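Protocol step 4 of 6: record predicted structures for both targets in the notebook before any analysis. Target 1:
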Amino acid sequence: MAEDKTKIRGLTQTFSLRGLAGNHKNKVYPVSFNFKIGREQDNNLIINEGFVSRHHAVVKSISGC
């Protein structure tokens, strides 16, 4: 019987956010683990709008979901 040489490689999920309105309309932002969104300068995506809080959201990857 021939040796099974099948190898399974780890999958890397990549995704991005696309702006829908305002200054971010049609801009694409690649997302990495623990991607932070908000008005403060320490965020990965800074949205300087009154309806967005200083630390508005964090996008996280959770294993198994």
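Target 2:
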Amino acid sequence: MQVGDKTPGGRYTFLDRLGGGGMGEVWLARDEQFGRTVAVKFLLEEHQLTKSTSGGGWDYQNLEQRFLREAEVMASLDHPGVPMVLDWSMEPCGDFKRRYIVMQHVEGGTLEYIFDKFHSLVVEEVACLAAQVCSVLAVAHDKNLIHRDLKPSNLMVDRSGLVRVLDFGIAILTDPNITRLTRSSQASPGTTGYMAPEVRTLKTPGVEESDLYSLGCVMYEALGGPVFSGTSDEVTAAHLKETPEPIRVRNPTVPEKLGELIDQMLLKDPGERPSGAREVYGRLRSYLPRQDFRGRESFDLTRPFVDPWCPLPRSDGRSGGGRMPPQVIAKPQVTSSSVAAGLRAAQETWETGRTEDALMQAKQILQGAKDHLKIPSRVTRKAWLAYATMLRDSGSVPEAVAELRAMLEQSAPFVGEEDSHLGQAKKILRDIE
């Protein structure tokens, strides 16, 4: 797929690749019929799938069914928190063999990006985030749909502060009369760092409370960092057996009752968690911001609750005085911007032929990102990949392999196997091993 390519019939022209993973990719496209931009999500062709995908118990027919299910699920959920499905094609045509879903293009950033940018959120922002997700979950659960993969990269915040829940590809119907896509021979659905214990052990494909557990993990991370850290196996074992440190121990600014709610959402027994998304929403109401609350200039999660009809700032910067960002909690000394600048400097050093100096710079940048931004950070994964690539290109292949394997092992619990940086790491490993 290249910029300028079109779908059969010429309706959609591809403008830019927005992202992708082990099973699919998303492109920005222009709808020539209506002159609007849209997002087009593709299922990769069978020969393009990664080994991790085919090794997870999915054959290609399963993936086609899952892809069609995602289109049907998203189209059935009439809610502003779910991107609108505009079109889809499940039949290959001529040389164009890809199945695709055409969706509303949401201009904004994922919660993962926001965590990278701001490090943490304040209580009012977390309440607004979780309340919006609960509103979507209530509608989905009313239709017997369980999402099963709530995580920061699947939550998009648009310019107006509205939260969109993405990727219903592994959602299931709990109606016993409907055949499920997930079989016991397939790997556990979801992402390790956010997956409910009962889903991890395959005791159940998922219940409403499973989504609340995942949302609890996201809320916990927004206020105090990841619930558990470590390798994939260590994080899995912790979610199954260990009691998380109370969120108020991590962050004493969290109000007592909100801390109790988050801690309850993370209980191992689904029956001991809140009874549903509506209960969680009700318990969040007292933490929604007052009318005089001042949100961030960008990604203002409080806007839909404080001032939903306020015109958005103009893109040319002539909007007048914008909203003032609130104080963030324990902003790190190392930031996403400083890591990006450091990587550019290391690359410039590399290009002058000072290999050892460049490797030392990249290693120090990576360690700083790990210490301050943490392993789940997108910027940390980028720095890790850059350091491993330099090791490979300098001839230190065993060291590069060790770094790439550590990156995969420690990052996958939080971002899933389909993350684009992990995909690049796997490709490099295949090439050098």
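Step 5 preliminary note on target 2. The radius of gyration is 22 Å. The chain is about 45% helix and 10% strand.
Proceed to step 6 after PI sign-off.
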